[in-house]
C-alpha cells in the first residue's frame, strides 16, 4: 500500500528508537567493490548487438539558422547509415524540466557548438568523419553579443527587499561598496555524457547517465512525442553529475530518434570537447555587494546585486543571492538580479547553484567590512546573526552557525592570526581566512518500495547514485528500521520501472529518498506489529527476529513470502512554518609567493551543522569534495570563451583547471556538529552535497587578502591578479 506523508505531521522518531546502530556509521560504500573492479556498468558500457554509432554535428556560427545540410561530401564514407536532421530535431530546442536545458538539436542556432544533427554509421570513426565533413549552410544573424559585459539585451529583475536599504545605508557610519566578478564554471564530471537507445515496438529503453530519472523519462517522452509509459530509462551507475546530468541531454534524444529510424540500437557518446561545448555550464557573474554598519560592527544595511547570463529563451538564472538573503540581519536589505542574453553555451545548475558563486563575493565583502571596522571577521559574523529569516520572518529550524564559527576558530588556531601581511616564511606570505557556509534545504517528492523477506530486504526506487552514496545510505535506513545487517539489504536503483524518487540534485536526494525509504520500512514495522498483536512502538526487530506481545518469532517463520510496502513523501520547502538550511564555517590558510603570485592552500577546516548524519564517511567525502571545489573556484577554475564567437576555448581537463592532488593540502579537516532538524523531514537530515562548496572559496580568498594585505575581487585569483 502507498501512503503519502506531509511535512506538517508530527515527527516520527523511530529511526532513533530502533537502536540498531547502523545509522550514522562510517560504512564503506556498498557499490565500491563493483566500481573499483570495473564491473559496474556505466551508460556507454554495454553495447547491444547490431548497435550503430552516432556523433553529434554541431553549429559553427554563434546565432542564426541552418538552411541546408549537404551530404555530398560524405557520400563516399563506408558504413555511413544516415544523417538525422528530421523535423523533430529541427524544431526549437525544448526546455528541459529539470535543468532548463535545450534537450535536443535544432535548426535554430543559439550558440557556437550547439548540436544541429546526428551522423550515424557502423563505426564511431565513420560517424565522426561524417559529422566533420558534412557541409552545413547557415543564415547568420548580425550583431550577436557573446560577452555579458557588452550585452544590450538585459532583463532587470524586480528588487527583493525588506526594510529600507537606501536610508539604512545612507545613515550607516561605515560602508563597503565592492564589485566582484566570477568566471564561468564547468561541472567537469569524469564520465562524459552518453546514451544508448533501443526500441522494442513502441517502447524505448535509454541507457544513460542522468541524475533525475523520473523527470528525465517525461523529458524524453515529450521530446519524442510519445507516452511516458513507453519510456524506460536505466542509469544504475553515474560517473559524477554536479548538475550537468539533471536534465536529459541532446545525445539521448538524438540516440532515440536515430534508433527508431534505423530499427537498431544506437549509441551516442559525447567527446570531452562536446561536453564542454554543449552541456550546461555555470554562468559567469558580476556582483556588487554593499554593507552599511555602525562603528561597533552592527550591520544596518545589506545589498547584493548580480548579473548572470543565459541564451535567449532559457528560463534558468543562477540564484546568486540565495544565501545573502538569510545569513545576516539588517534594518534594510535589497537584492536585484540582471539577466544578460548572450550567445554562449546555455547556463544551468552546477553544484550549489546560487550559493557557490554568490557566497564568494558576499563573504569576501564581509571580510572587507571586518577589516574596515577593525573587528575580527569571526566576531563580526557572530554579532550579526539574525533571530529570524531577515526577508520572511520565519524562525530557523536548526542553525548552529555560531557554534560552527566558534568551534572552528578554536580548532584552527584563529587567535594566532595576527595583522594582515604580518607573517612571512622566506618568499612566502602566510594568511588565514574565514567564511560562513550556508545552503538552503529542500524536499522533492519521492517514493520507495521496500520488500521484507524472512532472510533480508530489498529497497526499490528509481533514485540515482551519482557517486554520493545513495546505495549505501538507503540500505542503512532500511537496515536500521528492519533490524538487519547491511549485507542483508539489497538496494535497487536507477530504473524508471521502479517507484519514482527525487533523483540526485540540489542536496535533496538523501533527504527525500531517505525519507520515503524510512516511511516504507516504518509501514512494514506496523504490519509486523499487527501480525504479532502488539502496538508498533513496542515492536523490536533485531537480527531477523521479531519481538512483541511476549512473543519472539524469527522472520523466516513469521513471513510467508514477503511483506511489500510503498511510501512517498511530498515535496516542498520542508515544513513551511520554518526556514531550513545547512550552515557551517570554513577556515583556510594559504601561502602566497611574493614574486610570482602563486597561491598554495596549506590547510582547510570546515565545521558544519547539517542535520542528522546518515553515514559519517560518505558525508565527510561530500563535504571534502565541496571544499576542493571551493579551492578550484578561488584559484584555478575558469571557462574561457572566444570573444568573437562565444566558443569555449578551454574544452578539456588540461585547459580547464580543476584542482589536482598537488593543489589540495593533506590537511583538510571536516567536523560535523551534532544536529537534528525536526522541521526538515521525517529523518531529520539536511542536504550535504553542496554545503561544502558554499563559502569555501571565499575563505581561501580572504586568506589571500590577509596574507598579502591587498584585495583581489576577480575570481579565480590567478597569479597575475594576486601580484
Ligand atoms: Mo546539483 S547542481 O542540483 O546536481
From TrEMBL:
Where are the residues of the annotated region Disordered?
Answer: 1-43
Q: What is its EC number?
A: 1.17.1.4
Q: Which Pfam families match?
A: Ald_Xan_dh_C, MoCoBD_1, MoCoBD_2
Q: Which residue ranges have biased composition labelled Basic and acidic residues?
A: 1-16
Enumerate the spans annotated as Aldehyde oxidase/xanthine dehydrogenase a/b hammerhead domain: 37-142
Enzyme class, top EC level, equals oxidoreductase
| Source superkingdom | Bacteria
Q: Does the keyword Membrane apply?
A: no
SUPFAM superfamilies, alphabetized? CO dehydrogenase molybdoprotein N-domain-like, Molybdenum cofactor-binding domain
Membrane spanning segments where? none
* Molecular functions per Gene Ontology: iron ion binding; xanthine dehydrogenase activity
Keyword Oxidoreductase listed? The answer is: yes
Question: What PANTHER family does this protein's entry cite?
Answer: ALDEHYDE OXIDOREDUCTASE MOLYBDENUM-BINDING SUBUNIT PAOC, XANTHINE DEHYDROGENASE
The protein depicted here goes by the name: Xanthine dehydrogenase, molybdenum binding subunit apoprotein
| Provenance organism | Salipiger profundus
Amino acid at each position: 500500500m502507498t501512503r503519502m506523508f506531509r511535512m506538517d505531521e508530527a515527527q516520527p522518531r523511530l529511526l532513533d528508537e530502533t537502536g540498531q546502530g547502523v545509522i550514522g556509521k562510517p560504512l564503506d560504500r556498498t557499490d565500491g567493490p563493483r566500481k573499483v573492479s570495473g564491473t559496474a556498468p556505466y551508460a556507454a558500457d554495454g553495447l547491444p548487438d547490431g548497435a550503430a554509432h552516432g556523433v553529434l554535428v554541431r553549429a559553427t556560427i554563434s546565432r542564426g539558422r541552418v538552411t541546408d545540410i549537404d551530404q555530398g561530401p560524405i557520400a563516399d564514407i563506408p558504413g555511413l547509415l544516415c544523417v538525422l536532421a528530421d523535423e523533430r530535431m529541427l524544431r526549437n530546442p525544448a526546455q528541459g524540466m529539470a535543468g532548463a536545458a535545450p534537450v535536443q538539436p535544432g535548426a535554430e542556432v543559439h550558440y557556437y557548438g550547439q548540436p544541429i544533427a546526428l551522423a550515424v554509421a557502423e563505426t564511431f570513426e565513420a560517424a565522426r568523419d561524417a559529422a566533420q565533413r558534412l557541409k552545413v549552410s547557415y543564415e547568420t544573424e548580425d550583431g550577436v553579443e557573446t560577452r555579458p559585459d557588452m550585452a544590450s539585451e538585459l532583463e532587470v529583475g524586480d528588487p527583493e527587499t525588506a526594510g529600507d536599504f537606501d536610508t539604512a545605508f545612507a545613515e550607516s557610519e561605515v560602508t563597503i561598496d565592492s564589485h566582484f566578478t566570477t568566471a564561468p564554471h564547468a561541472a567537469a564530471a569524469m564520465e562524459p555524457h552518453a546514451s544508448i537507445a533501443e526500441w522494442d515496438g513502441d517502447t524505448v529503453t535509454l541507457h544513460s547517465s542522468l541524475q533525475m530519472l523520473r523527470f528525465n523519462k517525461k523529458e524524453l517522452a515529450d521530446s519524442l512525442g510519445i507516452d511516458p509509459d513507453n519510456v524506460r530509462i536505466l542509469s544504475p551507475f553515474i560517473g559524477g553529475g554536479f548538475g550537468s546530468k539533471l536534465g536529459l541531454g541532446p545525445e539521448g534524444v538524438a540516440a532515440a530518434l536515430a534508433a527508431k529510424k534505423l530499427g537498431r540500437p544506437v549509441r551516442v557518446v559525447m567527446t570531452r570537447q562536446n561536453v564542454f561545448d554543449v552541456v550546461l555550464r555555470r554562468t559567469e557573474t558580476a556582483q556588487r555587494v554593499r554593507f552599511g554598519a555602525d562603528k561597533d560592527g552592527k550591520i544596518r544595511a545589506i545589498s547584493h546585486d548580480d548579473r548572470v547570463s543565459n541564451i535567449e529563451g532559457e528560463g534558468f538564472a543562477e540564484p546568486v543571492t540565495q544565501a545573502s538573503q538569510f545569513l545576516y540581519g539588517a534594518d534594510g536589505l535589497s537584492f536585484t538580479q540582471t539577466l544578460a542574453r548572450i550567445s554562449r553555451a546555455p547556463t544551468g545548475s552546477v553544484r550549489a547553484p546560487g550559493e557557490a558563486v554568490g557566497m564568494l563575493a558576499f563573504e569576501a565583502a564581509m571580510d572587507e567590512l571586518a577589516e574596515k571596522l577593525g573587528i575580527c571577521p569571526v566576531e563580526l559574523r557572530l554579532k550579526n546573526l539574525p533571530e529570524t529569516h531577515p526577508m520572511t520572518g520565519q524562525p530557523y529550524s536548526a542553525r548552529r552557525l555560531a557554534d560552527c564559527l566558534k568551534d572552528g576558530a578554536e580548532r584552527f588556531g584563529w587567535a594566532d592570526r595576527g595583522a594582515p601581511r604580518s607573517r612571512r616564511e622566506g618568499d612566502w606570505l602566510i594568511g588565514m581566512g574565514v567564511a560562513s557556509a550556508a545552503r538552503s534545504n529542500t524536499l522533492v517528492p519521492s517514493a520507495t518500495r521496500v520488500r521484507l523477506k524472512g532472510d533480508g530486504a530489498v529497497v526499490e526506487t528509481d533514485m540515482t547514485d551519482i557517486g554520493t552514496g545513495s546505495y549505501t545510505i538507503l540500505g542503512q535506513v532500511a537496515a536500521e528500521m528492519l533490524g538487519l545487517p547491511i549485507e542483508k539489504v539489497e538496494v535497487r536503483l536507477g530504473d524508471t520501472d521502479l517507484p519514482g524518487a527525487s533523483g540526485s540534485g540540489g542536496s535533496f536526494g538523501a533527504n527525500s529518498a531517505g525519507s520515503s525509504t524510512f516511511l516504507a520500512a516504518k509501514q512494514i514495522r506496523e504490519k509486523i506489529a499487527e501480525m504479532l498483536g502488539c502496538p508498533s512502538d513496542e515492536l523490536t526487530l533485531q537480527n531477523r527476529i521479531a519481538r512483541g506481545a511476549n512473543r519472539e518469532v524469527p522472520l523466516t517463520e513469521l513471513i510467508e513470502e514477503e511483506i511489500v510496502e510503498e511510501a512517498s513523501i511530498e515535496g516542498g520547502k520542508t515544513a513551511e512554518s520554518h526556514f531550513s538550511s545547512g550552515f557551517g564555517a570554513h577556515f583556510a590558510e594559504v601561502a602566497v609567493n611574493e614574486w610570482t603570485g602563486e597561491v598554495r592552500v596549506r590547510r582547510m577546516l570546515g565545521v558544519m551543522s547539517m542535520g542528522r548524519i546518515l553515514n559519517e564517511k560518505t558525508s565527510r567525502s561530500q563535504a571534502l569534495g565541496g571544499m576542493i571545489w571551493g579551492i578550484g573556484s578561488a584559484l584555478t577554475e575558469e571557462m574561457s570563451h572566444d570573444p568573437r564567437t562565444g566558443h569555449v576555448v578551454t574544452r578539456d581537463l588540461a585547459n580547464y583547471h580543476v584542482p589536482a592532488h598537488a593543489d589540495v593540502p593533506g590537511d583538510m579537516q571536516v567536523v560535523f556538529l551534532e544536529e537534528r532538524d525536526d522541521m526538515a523531514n521525517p529523518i531529520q537530515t539536511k542536504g550535504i552535497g553542496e554545503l561544502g562548496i558554499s563559502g569555501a572559496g571565499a575563505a581561501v580568498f580572504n586568506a589571500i587578502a590577509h596574507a598579502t594585505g591587498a584585495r583581489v575581487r576577480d575570481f579565480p585569483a590567478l597569479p597575475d591578479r594576486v601580484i
